[in-house]
Amino acid sequence: MAFTQTPLADCVIFEPRVFYDERGYFFESYNQRVWEEAGVRVDFVQSNQARSTQFGVLRGLHYQVAPMAQAKLVRVVEGEVLDVVVDLRETSETYGKWFSVRLSAENKRQLFVPRGFAHGYAVLSETAEFVYQCDNFYSRGHEGGIRFDDPTLNIDWEFDLQLALVSEKDLALPAFGEHRR
């Protein structure tokens, strides 16, 4: 099992060891002992799954503020997405920086998104199923978000944003710097 540090502090990519045979494959998608040995201590309390039925569905950038902030472990079980995180921790050396990684059912990569990060993804396949575990419960009253096309962040979503399918709620999110803290 391999952990790779991203350019953003505390945000890591996990690539599980996959065992294949003529029947298919098996892997541990999460093992608390392995993560703790890698220096990541997290207790997940909620698991979510989202299905997107078209190329270009773009969800985000979302987060929750304290005391309901969430760390997430995200992965794709069908299709492919471009997963994007933005460091919102004002005391972090990577504050305001973003990182993206392709997650797919094929590559089985997972991304650990620490508390204090905004998160979103764009579907790069015809359909996608996205699964994530959270270390805190969802709270509508603690939601925050940033516009996916914020010019200050200048995120490269790797496709023409005129093709993006974005919810009305996400289109109304504020710019970076005007976001909820």
Determine the N-to-C terminus distance: 35 Å
CATH class: Mainly Beta
**What is the helical fraction, as a range of percent?**
under 10%
Tell me the number of helical segments per DSSP (H or I, 4 or more residues long).
Answer: 2
Topology order in helix (H) and strand (E) letters: EEEEHEEEEEEEEEH
CATH architecture: Sandwich
On the 0-100 scale, what is the average pLDDT? 96
List keywords for this structure.
mainly beta, single chain, about 180 residues, five-stranded antiparallel beta sheet, Jelly Rolls
Structure description:
With 181 residues, the chain is mainly β. It has a single domain (42-171), classed as Jelly Rolls. Helix content is 6%, strand content 39%. The chain has 2 helices and 13 strands. The protein has helices at residues 32-37, 168-171, and strands at 2-5, 12-15, 19-21, 24-26, 46-52, 58-64, 72-78, 80-87, 98-104, 110-113, 117-123, 128-134, 143-145. Strands 1-2-10-7-12-5 form a 6-stranded antiparallel β-sheet, with no helix packed on it. β1 and β2 form a beta hairpin. The longest helix has 6 residues, at 32-37. The chain is globular. It starts with a strand and ends in a 10-residue tail after the last helix. The model has no long low-confidence stretch (mean pLDDT 96).
